[in-house]
Amino acid sequence: MSPVSVHEAEQPRILLVDDEPRLLASLFELLRDGPYQLATASTGEQALQELARLKFDLVLLDLRLPDMSGHDVMDFIRARGIDVDVIVISGEGAIDAAIGAIKRGAYDYLRKPYSREELLHTVGKALQRRALALSNARMASQLETSERMYRYLVDSSPDIIYTLNHEGRFTFVNDRVEQLLGISREELIGKHYSVLVHDEDQERARYVFNERRRDQKAARKVELRLKCFNGNAIERTFSHCLTSIALNAIGLAQDGAVLPHDYFGTYGVARDITERKRAEELISYQAYHDILTDLPNRILFKDRLGLAVIQAKRKQTELAVMFIDLDRFKLVNDTLGHVKGDELLQQVAARLKSVVRRGDTLARQGGDEFTVVLPELAQRADAELIADKFLESLQQPFALDGHEVHISASIGIAVYPDDGETIDELLRHADIAMYHVKGQGKNGHCFYDNSMLDITHQKIVLEQALRRAIEEGQLEMYYQPQVDLASGRVVGAEGLMRWNHPLRGVLTAGEFLPFAEEIGLMLPLSDWMVGALCRDLTRWNLNGGEHVRLSLNVSPQYLERGDFFDKMRAAMLEHKLSPEQIEVEITENICIRNPQHAIDQLQKLCQLGVAVAIDDFGTGYSSLSYLHRFPVHTIKIDQAFVREIRDEHGHYPVILAIISIARGLGLHLIAEGVENEVQARYLQANGCTVMQGYLYHRPMPLTQLLGVFARDALQVPRMAAPAMLAARQA
Q1: Is the same domain home to 170 and 128?
Q2: Domain that holds residue 233
Q3: Do 352 and 362 contact (CB within 8 A), yes or no?
Q4: Which of these, 207, 209, 270, 283, lies nearest to 244 by C-alpha position?
Q5: Which residues neighbour 224 within 8 Å (Cβ) at sequence distance 6 or greater?
Q6: What is the pTM of this model?
Q7: Domain assignment of residue 463, yes or no
């Protein structure tokens, strides 16, 4: 090991502890240019080893570690008597975490995300305080050897050092008292300590300073507020300029004195902890307020709602609870980004706050949801009036970096005691009423009614049934064949999910997938579809089926999930399938939210050998530039356009444009929803020869699809005319 230079030995040594590699690296980079020696640890055990091995001046500690909590690390430091300061840096929002850190002696507590300036300032102050503390320790040892050095060191101390006689009058105080309190030591000598103590702390001061303890029990600690003096304006500063001081007083007795009346006086060190007390107050405030909007958070809201309920019960009055959810906020967040979304929430909070009355509480529940409690409600019309004012306040556009954004809100109202007598009941029923407004078209308000509970109950029952359907195998894949009119043969099939409901029979995807997307079940359903398609292809190959491509619809949510490609590849490897047998169908809207991510996912699939088709082409919002960038093999004409074909000699420009796009880009083309011969002849005449629809085949289970291919194999020569295909199917 190379010797440590003198310069390095003088530099403070800092230990950085965080289990997130990115945050740990960021923290290291932020401090590496400073005059520090840095060490890192990503687990609690590594931190303990470093603390046992080296002497550190400061630890920047995350509370949430994989093997132990930051509190455990601080307990280790305290148990071993390790002389090191700790700054806690954590994303923990709970007040207990912050209080636990402070109780264990943390110098400060920074919440993630923190600013660069805040971190550097806090680290600098901690090291400065430590340097001053070390300086104090050196001073204390030198007091024994030199009276002159004693005077110099005491007056240079960052703390107030003083002595009191047995009457509690100052016999010595250093110059620091004038810097902190604005009164010279000459003015204090001979004065009673009570002239400095705040009126409300006088009793506590008398208890501490009048005790006559000796030996090891002579030391005692207390926190007192001391008055600050500004010239002669004592009365004004008496109330408004107060400094919190931690006192450590030690009783002094004459040599050999054993009787109480031999008590000599008191020596004390008063340390300014004002900033620490302010930090504690800030942590306490942040524990009950939303940082973004500065509104009460859900914890404080529930506390105030609970008090309002108690008051209403005592006075036998009503109160109203409102649940406010912003309409179209998600669209703003997705298009303009989260930073602008946060700015919008701040503006919304300011407008809503301008409407509430004195005594009302407006709080942010989280996301784009707000709650309001209106205590002592005179009549329901008052709540309705406030709700109307809320909606009116949101009508004017919001300015966001040159953009004019329009949003509205859906407001549900529950009234105590008719709609509930507990906090949870009132909030739940207001939430249900809000969703009722959403279902009725948004931008409005309504009171809770018991009939809404029945609708909510039905949704819960449907959600439970759908979850059971996944677990109990009630889902099944159906396939709608795709026919090539040139040969009259089936060349592929689109996989469609069906739910074999025990009471309602077979349900199509359109009857339950929108609800599944709303309640967050699209991901497990999509996982099931990938597995089902691969299992069916395995059965297909084992039954000697011809080489065919089966397509699978993928929702935007599923494609946006980072492990979609890995899921698909793992399923194909498990079932030993050729990628050329699978085609993934996406919608145009998939490129709105994160086009580059979608392109990356699809390109990896194409490199694997999986084909990509754009379903319902022409109904979404994508531009031709996106279509050119996407690794697409096939586009499908949406049935909404096919349905418009009523004359095989007519002119349908949208369809002709889509056919031209496919031909120009060299893409395969499939028409969906073909139901009659007129549609088929028009499409075939204009260059679209592959079709799917009821004219040829309805969606069917895999076994029936195998039968269709078997019949095709016996039909020689192939029949291409739509009428002949329809006749054969009949």
Answers
A1: no
A2: 159-280
A3: yes
A4: 270
A5: 197, 198, 201, 204, 205, 244, 245, 247
A6: 0.45
A7: no
